[in-house]
Specification:
By secondary structure, this protein is of the alpha/beta class. Helices cover about 20% and strands about 35% of the residues.
Length: about 120
C-alpha cells in the first residue's frame, strides 16, 4: 500500500521546570507559546510549524546517547552565532564541528535532552 509521506510535526518532552524550558526554546530556537492543555502541557511552535510539547514532570533516565533531535540552520554562520550564544550562557555541549561542508554542535537543554544544531553543504 502506497502512502503519502507524513511530516513529523511535534515532539513531547517531560520537563522539570516548565517556565525554564519554555524560555529556553523561545530564546534560542524561536518558539512561541501556542497552546496549553489541562494536564499542564504547553505546546510551543516555531515558524516552520513544528510543535514542541513540554509536559511538567520529573524526567527519567535520558535516552540512548545517540538519541537527539535537531535544527537545520540556513547557513554555517547561523550555527556559529547560536553556538556562541549558547556558550555564553554556559550551556553544556556534547559535540562541536566546524568543517567546510558541515558546521554543527550538540548541546543539552535544561533537562538534559540533546539538541543538534547544524548546517550541511
Amino acid at each position: 500500500m502506497d502512502h503519502e509521506p507524513l511530516p513529523v510535526l511535534h515532539l513531547n518532552l517531560l520537563v522539570a521546570d516548565l517556565e525554564r524550558s519554555v524560555a529556553f526554546y523561545e530564546q534560542f530556537f524561536g518558539f512561541a507559546r501556542h497552546a496549553k492543555y489541562g494536564d499542564g502541557t504547553v505546546f510551543v511552535r516555531n515558524a516552520q510549524g513544528f510543535d514542541l510539547g513540554l509536559k511538567p514532570g520529573a524526567p527519567g533516565a535520558m535516552p540512548a546517547p545517540t538519541m537527539h533531535f535537531g535544527f537545520r540552520a540556513p547557513d554555517p554562520d547561523a550555527v556559529r552565532r547560536l553556538r556562541d550564544e549558547l556558550h555564553r550562557t554556559g550551556a553544556p555541549f556534547t559535540e562541536e564541528s566546524d568543517e567546510d561542508d558541515f558546521v554543527g554542535c550538540k548541546v543539552l537543554d535544561p533537562d538534559g535532552y540533546e539538541i543538534e544544531i547544524y548546517w550541511e553543504a
